[in-house]
Amino acid sequence: MRRLLIILCFLAAPAFAVQPDEVLDDPALEARAREISRELRCLVCRNESIDESNADLARDMRLLVRERLVEGDSDPEVLTYIVERYGEYVLLRPTTGGTNIALWLAGPAMLVLGLGIAVVYLRGRRPEGSGEDLSEDEMQRLREILKE
Prior knowledge:
Blueprint: H1 2-12, H2 27-37, H3 56-70, H4 75-86, H5 100-125, H6 136-147
Helix pairs in contact: 2-3, 3-4
Transmembrane segments: 101-122
Keywords: Cytochrome c-type biogenesis, Heme, Iron, Membrane, Metal-binding, Signal, Transmembrane, Transmembrane helix
InterPro entries: C-type_cytochrome_biogenesis (IPR051263), CcmH/CycL/Ccl2/NrfF_N (IPR005616), CcmH/CycL/NrfF/Ccl2_sf (IPR038297)
């Protein structure tokens, strides 16, 4: 039973695609490379980080990150270099500035617009009077109809 539990733990753990020949000798640089790789999207797999993807492009990007770190770039410089090379889509968490602000605001704006349209529509369906505007003859006729 204990072995089964250990096997299940390994199966539930995230699978990293980093190959042994990619790993840097310096543990501090390797840790930085892993941290940066978790923030970058694999352009082939779309919703996986390059750290988790087995695609050839993801491997190339991992090697590029490590190459830039070995050359002495800081983490933001590495991210900037990768974004300049592959575009902002490569970031798993896109920035909230620039032209992306329209995308960030579009969802809440559509929600408010939809709620406004629903309120106007529902108010238009409300009956005009509540029955208090009827004359005595009309009220008597309504009672007769309801009794039938």
